[in-house]
Specification:
By secondary structure, the protein is of the alpha+beta class. 26% of the residues lie in helices and 48% in strands. Strands 1-7-6-5-4-3-2 form a 7-stranded antiparallel β-sheet, with helices on one face. The longest helix has 31 residues.
Length: 148
């Protein structure tokens, strides 16, 4: 099962970086294969969203639940239904060196064992590229907002 970890140091306060990352609906602006994100439900400390992402021209769809732990500066997410056998991970935000160290972890399983050798490297590369673009976009927004 593929796993991706992206780390970035952001020269901005942790609470600002965390708030920007909680804006799930903005992800489609920064992650190229993401075609659509629709907020299905929003509650105290969580969001449920429906996603459409292209993988080699084929749409993958899922619904995920993101839980926001503002006290510990952690976001956990997991697929609750959809095309993937598994899609989950977390964001962590640690105060470090006058800024925030952001870590985004993504674990997924396409659920197609016969094609895993072919599809997993492609899906991993696309997911890593999208994750890096997303973290960089949050970094840029946070640093601009904080004057860094």
């Amino acid at each position: 099962m593929p796993s991706i970890t992206v780390r970035e140091h952001v020269r901005a306060p942790r609470d600002l970086v965390f708030r920007l990352a909680c804006r799930i609906e903005d992800i489609q602006k920064y992650a190229e294969p993401v075609q659509k994100i629709e907020i299905v439900e929003r509650g105290e400390g969580y969001v449920v969203s429906a996603w459409t992402v292209l993988l080699q021209g084929r749409p993958l769809r899922w619904t995920e639940r993101d839980e926001f732990d503002a006290e510990n500066f952690v976001i956990r997410y997991r697929q609750v239904k959809g095309d993937l056998a598994k899609f989950e991970g977390d964001w962590t935000f640690l105060e470090m060196d006058g800024g925030t160290d952001v870590t985004l972890r993504v674990d997924f399983d396409l659920g197609i064992p016969m094609l895993a050798g072919l599809l997993n490297p492609i899906a991993t590369a696309l997911t890593k590229k999208s994750s890096e673009a997303l973290v960089r976009a949050i970094k840029q927004q946070a640093e601009e907002a904080s004057g860094a």
